[in-house]
Amino acid sequence: MSSTSGNGLxxxxxxRHFIVETADGQRRxxxxxxxxxxxxxxxxxxxxxxxxxxxxDRVEPRRNLLFRQDEWRSKSFAANxxxxxxxxxxxxxxxxxxxxRALIAATQAGIPAFVxxxxxxxxxxxxARERLAPxxxxxxxxxxxxxxxxxxxxxxxxxPRLQGRSTLVLGPSGMGKSTLINLMVPAAAAxxxxxxxxxxxxxxxxxxxxxxxxxEGRQTALIDSPGFQNFGLRQVAPADLGPLMxxxxxxxxxxxxxxxxxxxxxxxxxAALERGEISATRYRIYQELFAEVSSxxx
Length: 298
What we know:
By secondary structure, the protein is of the alpha/beta class. The protein has helices at residues 96-109, 125-131, 133-137, 151-162, 177-184, 188-199, 238-241, 246-249, 268-274, 280-294, and strands spanning 8-14, 17-21, 27-32, 44-50, 53-59, 65-69, 74-79, 83-89, 113-118, 141-144, 166-170, 210-213, 221-224.
């Protein structure tokens, strides 16, 4: 993982409380200065000790930043990532809208993303594979494995793909995210317990994004974010949405330069949809997301 200036790395966060790891691997509970909580997991920060704890003075410039979104607002939650691993499974069926939001957010932030399809030993694997066909066609890398069916093979597939990088792992409940984390980081339960105790979050740890090191060298990291974040896209302008979806972007030879791809005549995207070159599901997702980002005040 590339080095960044600053004397600490945020490896856990909850409210205005942070776990900061120093260059020699020591960890300390820190607080943000003032009322505003700006740091997120993955941030490089300047901090100073105050007794047994510490205060974060400033956050170093970020390479990238991801947002999550609830009904009321968007909030940043992870920074300085090398890649995004989106975990889906043959069963239960995953939501394509969530997958699309994750890929758009990653593209907009300049973060490479790939998909891992788990539970390929199940009969439903063929249907899940078919749903991923449009994503493969637009150039998204898809790795297929069975975390419980053949853990050794799964680890052999994943480890080279993760080596030397900081990877945010995302996946809806039931996809096997905990299995993946525990396979790659045997000490994960101990690490999350340590961070939970320091942050005093207890049973609320599931709301906390956590940084895990793979191995002693602290060169490869997995970042676990709870659930499948509803990625905040309010930072995306309506006109920028289509270009962030590669299958739509390939057909934007429209009559009008400011075509919304919803109703204008001479639209290359809707012509491709009619020819079956863009899936109906992907176009429906575009319509929903366009309406959402159009409601944001710019």
